[in-house]
Specification:
474 residues; 84% helix
Amino acid sequence: MHSGEDAADRLGAKGWLIVATLCGATFMTGLDFSVVTVALPEIGRSLGFASTGSLQWVATACLLPTAGLLPLFSRVCDLVGRRRLFTMGVALFSGFSLIAGLAAGPAMLIAARVGQGASAAMIAPTAIALMTTAFPEGPQRTKALGINGAVLSLGFVLGTLGGGVITSGLSWRWTMLILVIIGALVLLGATILLPRTADTRAAARLDIPGAVLASMGLFALVYGISTGPEADWGSVSTLGSLALAVVALGAFLQVELRHAAPLIPLGLLNKPTVKWSGLIGLITFGMCGGTTVLLSLYMQDVLGYSALATGAGFLAEGITALIGGMLAARLMGALGKVGSMATGLAVQGVGTGAMFLLPQDGGLALLLLTSGAMGFGHVLTVVSFITTMTSGLRDDEQGIAGGLSQLPQFLGAIGTAGMAAIVTARAEALSATTSPTLATLSGLHVATLTAGATCLVGVLLAVLFLRRPTAQTS
């Protein structure tokens, strides 16, 4: 009996190939967001960008359409078929990556990055929806989602490290051209392995007003948060963007209340497993993403690491993230969804808060230990909240839930912006009494302590508001 259950829990050869295909797409999009960051200075010199501000659009131009279009494609995938939209997204992403790699000037590169971002918005919700429909609720699905979470984090870490290696040894263009190769392999796997039944279409019309308002609101929100630190939080463009986001998203909720076939059914959005898991997702992504940016600042501005050494400094985070993803199914079996979510967020919080002890010189062991704890806890939390968010739902709700589960990683820029503001405020307050390095280090200490505390508040929220609903849906 026990061995039969174990056999049923195994993914099998075809299951592993399906996971590899879907995770390959996740890895590709995760890699794209990080690999270009290290290469930005070389891209600026090669293509003749006018300023650092305009160069930042190489990164932002990809992020904005992904965040803005995610709700739309989460619904479209149920209307046109998940397999069909996934395949189209991978093909377009590969094509735009080729254009980016061959770009002759700034305008061509930024236009291609916009295309990559829009394509990633097709891939993100469909990859999760295909995974939740390919594997039944239980150990198989949890294992697949665990591998997916680990691969997403690994894509970021390898992107940070690989971006330096590729740019130093070859050319920045290969940071884009390597995505074409990965995309071609994913496309081959999708064509051969993904079942045609995944192209089942829902008999509903698209909520155009809701799609426009959601896209406008999320685009304005991410734009305001992403450009706020550079443009100044009190500037007209930043305040205008954030005000537009509030108005558009408020109008979106009103439209959804009245529409016969809403883009995001508010009944789904109001489910405890969806709304509270989504909040936990926002906390873990926001605090991990923000802390990772600060660690890069710490290694380069305080410790004096090169870009390549900084990438290597993230290896502990990447390795423990991979371990966390591989162990997630087993831990969730032992602790339950909420237990593993709370445990993961607690480990992330303790690891992040302990960065308060990072010194001005040396401290490599502490850096690796704390970032490793953060990486492990973060991925365990990610797998747990996505599993909780997509459990107990009808098949026609999986596409929307898949998109909602991916949204926190793009809205996580809120955490990055908040932590950067803490560092800036603290450094400015100390600038008259200490050196710039020590002022920056003090700001980093306050910001990481705040991030750790925020994670621990998230643990409390998970235990208070998710314990009973999750037990019912398990």
